[in-house]
Amino acid sequence: MAYRSYVTPDYYTDTYDGSVIPEDELERALKQASRHIDSLTYNRIVGRGFSSLTEYQQEIIREVVCMQADFEVENADEINSILSSYSINGVSAQFGSSWNIFMDKGVAMKRDVYALLSQTGLCCRLAR
Is 8 in a helix, a strand, or coil? Predict the structure, then answer.
C-alpha cells in the first residue's frame, strides 16, 4: 500500500486556504510533511491508523501538515543546507535549534507548530 499524506491538495487549497506551495510541488510537499509528522509522533499515527484518531487529533494533524509543508517550502535552502551557520562580512545566520525553531530526528519545525502537534498527545517519548 502506497503512503498517503494526511492532507489532500484540495484540503490544502480550499480548507486551509494555502497558497505558498506551487501546485506542481504540492502533493510531494504534503507527503514529505506528513512523513516528518510521523517521525515526530513516533509513527503512532501509522500504527493506530489516521481514521482511528479522534476528530480533534485529525484536525490538528491536518493543520500541522499544512503549516509544516509551507515552512519546508519557504525555508528549503536553509533546511537542506549542510551548514548549521555561516558568516559573511560580519553578518551571520544560523539554522538549528533556536528560540523559534524546534529540531528533532532531523526535522526542523517552528516551535509553535510543534506545540500544536503536541496537543494531540502523540509526541510524548513515553511508550504507549
Answer: coil
pTM for the full predicted model: 0.85
99 contacts 85 by C-beta, under 8 angstroms: no
Q: Which residue in the block uniquely carries the three cell numbers 513516533?
A: 42
- Taking alpha carbons only, the member of 42, 27, 8 closest to residue 117 is 42
DSSP character string of 28-47: HHHHHHHHHHHHHTTTHHHH
Q: Helix or strand or coil: residue 104?
A: strand
Over residues 78-99, the pLDDT tens digits come to 777 755 565 677 776 665 555 6
The answer for residues whose C-beta is within 8 angstroms of residue 107's C-beta and 6 or more apart is: 36, 39, 40
